[in-house]
Amino acid sequence: MATTHKVTLIPGDGIGPEVTAATVSIIEAAAKTTGASFEWHRYDAGADAFAKTGEYIPKELYASIEENKVALKGPVTTPIGGGFSSINVTLRKKFDLYSNFRPVKNLPGLETKFPGIDMVIFRENTEDLYAGLEVMINPDIAQSLKIITRKGSTRIARSAFEFAKKSGRKKVHAIHKANIMKLSDGLFLKCCKEVAAEYPEITYAEHIVDNTCMQLVMNPWQYDVILTENLYGDILSDLCSGLIGGLGLVPGANLGVNCAIFEAVHGSAPDIAGQDKANPTALLQSALLMLRHLDEDATADIIQKALEAVYAEGKTLTRDVGGTSGTKAFADAVIAAM
Q: Considering the chain, what percentage of its residues have pLDDT values greater than 90?
């Protein structure tokens, strides 16, 4: 009898509930074919959760992730310049989800200025400036501390090289700013070099982050696996998403030793919330990473093939990628393509 996978489901806010519902409907449809079984434990987070429980991340949500070891999360609004802390950052730190894994690959039939992109970003996910160590020195001076550790740098480097080895990728670029931040980024770079020495079959290179931004819009095909720190990774992953059509397409995984949270990397787009306009592709592709993490490759394969067929046909796409269809119609098309 098939194992029932218990998954913590965080729909998020804005367009989150819509893209989450679409994604779950596709997974459930595929599961009927493969015999896979899922039990969804739904929880709110962010402003909606605070309105109901007085907590931005309810204790029950923490407990659910701790028990299930896997979560699928829609976008949650993060206030700018004030308000509550980022739900994403808080969950990553709470569960030590040190590896942010973001594959970036063109979808068939979707024309872009950069065809043939196929790269993966490994971003350290728990330290750097995102450690949240900020203080007001006085009303006119704010200070943030950049934290880089040997442990954090070494384990994200090893994750990148292990992935490259297992997936047959040939090159890893470490992205840094060690020419200016000689101690913090210098330590990161030193750790990357030490790990690289253990994988002589993989080409290792180093690029300064500002040069990397230029290189990515001139010749992105030179990159295979990008290995970098938290802040640089956040910026570069959005840049790379733009190469293949935008944030509505790219998946994300936050991986730790004991659990994993899979999420779309885009925002909550409150301006189109509730209008059946959102593209669920990013969350769906994040769910595909989750399915493979759960060893449900057959279910993932069926959905992947159907998703690519819908894009290749080009008749039932959402507006952000040049189509006229809504969220539900797109999901129905993927299901029909199975």
A: 86
Q: Determine, yes or no, domain membership for 308.
A: yes
Structure-token match 């330290």, residue found: 127
pLDDT for 53 beyond 90: no
The answer to the question of residue 249 being in a domain is no
Residue 107 lies in a domain: no
**pLDDT tens-place string over residues 89-131:** 889 989 999 999 999 999 999 999 999 999 999 999 999 998 8
* Residues identified as active-site: 130, 177, 210, 234
118 and 234 housed in the same domain: yes
Nearest C-alpha neighbor of 23 from the set 75, 87, 74, 68 = 74
CA distances from 158 to 172, 199, 258 (A): 11, 10, 17
Q: H helices then E strands: how many in the chain? A: 11, 12
Whose CA is closest to 29, among 334, 287, 276? Answer: 334
Three-class DSSP category at 171: strand
3-state secondary structure 280-297: CHHHHHHHHHHHHHCCCH
Same domain, 123 and 194: yes
What is d(CA 120, CA 250) in angstroms, rounded to the nearest whole number? 11
Q: Which domain holds residue 191?
A: 113-244
Q: What is the mean pLDDT of the chain?
A: 94
The predicted structure's pLDDT at residue 84: 59
